[in-house]
Specification:
The protein has two domains: 134 residues, D-amino Acid Aminotransferase, Chain A, domain 1, CATH 3.30.470.20; 96 residues, Phosphoribosylglycinamide synthetase, C-terminal domain (Glycinamide Ribonucleotide Synthetase, Chain A, domain 4, Alpha-Beta Complex), CATH 3.90.600.10. Strands 3, 6, 9, 11, 14 and 16 form a six-stranded antiparallel beta sheet that branches. It is α+β, with helices and mostly antiparallel strands.
């Protein structure tokens, strides 16, 4: 089960945002081609505090290793793409930026001045940042044109509108991506057109509001994933997390995670002790 742990670093200190779960497949229930991501949810109640702390330690170790091996401090954003597995949280990959659309969840949840936060990272004073976050749940959904992802020619030029009164009434945030204004409406340019952020006091409220918010985006052949944030979706994540958790806790209790075999391109199979 994948999740993203985003952070800022000044090379010494790290400031972590709440974990986010991305949905990289184009169609509902995680089927279809992988794309830039059709939506996100955060925070993630199905992750334990211990699992999040373990993932944080992996990111911290990576920042320290960058400094040790390259001789300079890495300053900026670092996002760890994680997987909760039968071995516990493991790293899939890193990227040196905030995620799309994971950044929307993170910055909305941050209960402070984002400009000042980034300034502290740039000035080497990130240890002064207060980790304050709103106690709400967020759901982000992307609206994309039919034809996305493989037929960008079919995905271009589809017209849509945004009901701004509805968006304001629901307290939504609408973020434009691959679209341009055209004749009082908007035209798609071949990729995800807009991303809409909704929030609520509970995961269920955030989901219901996200569905009402998506009704504000209307157009010719524009689709989104209704399942993201759905209570049944969240229940399925709980179930996956519990199954992985039961296995890795059983393995660790019996000392079965002290060696790992890893196949590396060009290096073959290597054994690592833990």
């Amino acid at each position: 089960m994948e999740f993203t742990l985003q952070a800022l670093t000044d090379g010494e200190s790290l400031f972590f945002f709440p974990p986010v779960q991305d949905n990289p497949h184009a169609f509902e229930y995680g089927v279809g081609p992988e794309c830039g991501g059709m939506g996100t949810v955060s925070p993630l109640p199905f992750l334990s505090r211990e699992e999040v702390e373990e993932a944080k330690r992996a990111v911290e170790a990576t920042v320290k290793a960058l400094q040790a091996e390259l001789g300079g401090r890495y300053v900026g954003a670092i996002s760890g793409q994680m997987m909760l597995t039968a071995r516990g949280p493991v790293v899939i990959e890193y990227y040196s930026r905030l995620g799309d659309s994971e950044a929307l969840n993170a910055l909305f949840l941050y209960d402070g001045d984002a400009y000042q936060l980034f300034g502290l990272a740039a000035d080497g004073k990130l240890h002064k940042a207060e980790p304050a976050f709103r106690e709400v749940h967020t759901v982000v959904k992307a609206a994309a044109p039919l034809g996305y992802t493989h037929r960008r020619d079919l995905a271009r030029g589809r017209l849509f509108t945004v009901d701004w009164d509805l968006a304001r009434r629901e307290g939504c945030r609408v973020f434009f991506a691959s679209a341009e204004e055209r004749g009082g409406a908007y035209a798609t340019l071949g990729s995800r057109a807009v991303e809409v952020l909704a929030h609520g006091a509970t995961p269920e409220e955030a989901y219901r509001r996200s569905e009402r918010c998506m009704a504000a985006v209307r157009g010719d052949g524009v689709f989104y994933r209704r399942d993201i944030g759905l209570p049944e979706y969240m229940a399925a994540m709980w179930d996956k997390a519990e199954r992985a958790r039961a296995v890795y806790r059983w393995r660790r209790a019996r000392g079965l995670d002290r060696r790992v075999l890893v196949w590396e391109p060009g290096a073959g199979l290597r054994e690592y002790g833990l």
